[in-house]
Write a structure and sequence with these properties.
By secondary structure, this protein is α+β, with helices and mostly antiparallel strands. It contains 17 helices and 22 strands. The strands form four sheets. The protein has a nine-stranded antiparallel β-sheet, with helices on both faces. Strands 1-2-3-4-7-5-6 form a seven-stranded antiparallel β-sheet.
Length: about 650
């Protein structure tokens, strides 16, 4: 409580872009767009860690950011609501919490707003405006708040973790070609385009598979069924465009729960942008269509996993299948809490609904053979997560992911931690590229050849080229390395001569200015750079040379951002990043830190194996999955089989 009060004081004393309203602390992030009536802010929440104990000399707190939207409020202004006035502060704004008597005097009044079905979005890392990202906002707050606490005699510091990059397999994939034959079933409301049109469409996109029109779901091929839809579940809700009509989706799934199937929406119309048109009057998909191609890729991957669930792994192999591990997930589905276990045996996936005594017995017998007492270990988990108070009833976990095996009980815990990037270095790199003007000789490269050669092992040292007569023309290089070295050095000389031309009119300029426009094209030609598919030149080659000298380093570099890969530390914490480097869109959400919470079996727990199962790309499109992918198999079973099968019918 003391820390939160100090945070309020810290925010109230600030006159820049931090503000307080209704006992909440905010930082202004960005406007909603040009001439927008909305502005996005970040609410800063301070939350004590579950491991904190009363009276301990050191307490741990999590700084949790929440994106919030502020919009214009219109009279009448309801009593008790929080209203704000907007004030410009340099390039951003500050919101002032208005007292009730000041609301009517304010020319434009703002208040927090929400939109049904939509969450406010503030990127975690915004490459176009670093200061508008949640990560940078947290970084600035923690640095300044720690200094502020020091003034009142409280010592604080950021938690540090030493992460190691996990090795990942490049072959951990599924082969959708093994579906072989896939049925196409028409479940559309309006069948303006024939089923054969879609069969031909899919066949052209995936010629290695055989797509067949299917009239009867009972004749589904072993490779499953793609179900055509032309509406979404939201369309049939009370505020939907098709409210009052029957949604054909649940009927089909209820009648055929044990047929592997996945639906795809072929209606490209936007119900919010029809302007009086007919929602179900939609065109046939025309290729190339990147969005539809991505959707079909996801559909086939999910269909393959469903085939493995229903038909087994003999025909539909899955990577990293464990012999003696089981996975238990508790979550909400269809308005109820379901606890489902999964294990593998005899090339089959075995599921057990632990809320059904007729199914749970087999699971508990398995644990008994493995030497695991579920109740005992689960109680230990509840105690460690502070779910067992001294007085009062036990607070059960509403959700969890648990892994059990021989003498093994491990839960996955969300630590509510986020990795802060090296924002001081990022800002410095940004300044070096965009803001700082250098004298032209700062850019010269020929005098730096030997330093560049140290970073490029295929290049010959300059002295060796001089001694062998490669530079004065007395001898022609014969080896590939010698030829490349001679060509590269001549390119550096030509580049430096170009700089001399630039210096006549621009003796001082920034790196961004030097490598833009016509100059960029000239530089690209000097170094033999090819144009992009759009016919444009990029600065990739020249930037790579400067990077070898430690100059003009990318603000997206991995040495200032822990973004790509899967990482772990010696406390069993881990972070699942991206399989690729960050693109120009930045980072929408933070990569959260989680940990393996080991209740039993710490001496033989193989975390690297489980981390490898998160490095698959068939659960999330071109992204890793944040937990072992077996938990996704549980979700598929619950959503597509369990919820449509009456008790006692399951045979998995």
């Amino acid at each position: 409580m003391l820390l939160k009060l100090l945070a309020f004081r810290f925010f109230r004393d600030d006159k820049t872009h931090r503000f307080v309203g209704q006992d909440k602390c905010y930082v202004y992030a960005r406007p909603g767009g040009k001439d927008s009536n909305f502005h996005y802010c970040v609410e800063i929440e301070l939350s004590g860690a579950p491991a904190n104990t009363e009276g301990a000399p050191t307490q741990e707190f999590r700084v949790i950011p929440h994106a919030r939207c502020f919009g214009k409020a219109t009279p009448p202004f309801r009593p008790g609501w929080a209203f704000f006035g907007k004030r410009p502060v340099r390039s951003r704004f500050l919101f002032l919490h208005l007292k009730s008597e000041a609301v009517e005097q304010e020319p434009t009044v703002y208040s927090p707003v929400t939109f049904p079905g939509k969450r406010a979005q503030v990127k975690y890392h915004d490459l176009r405006d670093v200061n508008a990202g949640k990560g940078k906002i947290i970084f600035d707050f923690t640095q300044q708040f720690i200094a502020n606490l020091k003034e009142v005699g409280i010592v604080a510091h950021l938690r540090e973790r030493a992460f190691t990059l996990a090795p990942l397999s490049k072959t951990a994939n599924i082969e959708v070609q093994q579906l072989k034959e896939v049925g196409i079933y028409d479940n559309r409301l309006r069948r303006a385009h024939s089923l054969d049109d879609y069969v031909d469409l899919f066949q052209g996109m995936y010629p290695a598979l055989c797509f067949v029109a299917l009239e009867d779901m009972r004749r589904a091929p072993q490779g499953g069924v793609i179900v055509l839809l032309d509406a979404t579940a939201e369309d049939f809700k009370e505020d939907g465009i098709l409210f009052g009509q029957t949604d054909p989706y649940p009927v089909l799934y209820r009648e055929h729960p044990n047929v592997p199937k996945h639906s795809i929406n072929v209606n490209s119309n936007d119900p919010d942008a029809l302007e009086g048109g007919d929602y179900l009057d939609y065109p046939l998909i025309q290729l190339p269509d990147k969005d539809f191609a991505r959707n079909l890729h996801v559909v086939l991957s999910e269909l393959y996993l469903k085939c493995a669930i229903i038909h087994g792994t003999a025909h539909f192999p899955l990577p990293f299948l464990p012999d003696e591990l089981a996975f238990v997930r508790r979550g909400r589905s269809g308005g109820e809490t379901i606890t489902m276990a999964l294990w593998f045996a005899d090339q089959q996936l075995h599921f057990a609904n632990l809320g059904d005594p007729t199914q749970s017995e087999a699971f508990y017998e398995l644990l008994e053979r493995w030497g695991v007492d579920w109740d005992e270990q689960y109680d230990k988990l509840l105690a460690e997560r502070k779910r067992i108070p001294e007085h009062g009833s036990i607070k059960d976990l509403p959700t969890f992911d648990i892994i059990v095996g021989h003498d093994l009980f491990v839960a996955i815990e969300d630590l509510a931690e986020r990795i802060l990037y090296e924002y001081d270095a990022i800002e410095q790199r940004h300044q070096e590229q965009y803001s700082i003007a250098y004298p032209i000789n700062h850019f010269q490269l020929a005098p730096q050849y030997d330093r560049i050669q140290q970073e490029r092992s295929t290049l010959l040292p300059l002295e060796q080229m001089v001694q062998q007569g490669f530079l004065d023309g007395s001898k022609k290089p014969t080896s590939k390395n010698a030829q490349q070295s001679q060509t590269f050095y001549k390119q550096l000389l030509e580049y430096d001569a170009f700089l001399g031309e630039v210096a006549v009119t621009h003796p001082i300029l920034s790196y961004q200015e030097l490598t833009s426009g016509e100059w960029r094209e000239r530089i690209a030609r000097i170094f033999g750079s090819k144009t992009t598919s759009e016919g444009k030149y990029h600065r990739k080659l020249i930037t790579g040379i400067y990077n070898d000298l430690g100059m003009f380093l990318s603000e997206r570099g991995e040495n200032v951002r822990l973004f790509q890969g899967i990482w772990y530390d010696d406390t069993n914490a881990f972070l699942v990043g991206s399989p690729t480097s960050m693109d120009l869109r930045g980072q929408a959400r933070a990569h959260l830190v989680r940990r393996f919470q080991i209740m039993q079996g710490s001496s033989h727990f193989d975390k690297e194996h489980l981390l490898a199962t998160m490095g698959v790309l068939f659960v999330r499109y071109k992204q890793y999955t944040v937990s072992p992918y077996y938990f996704h198999l549980i979700d598929l079973y619950v959503e597509n089989v369990l919820r449509y099968v009456s008790s006692g019918e399951e045979d998995f």
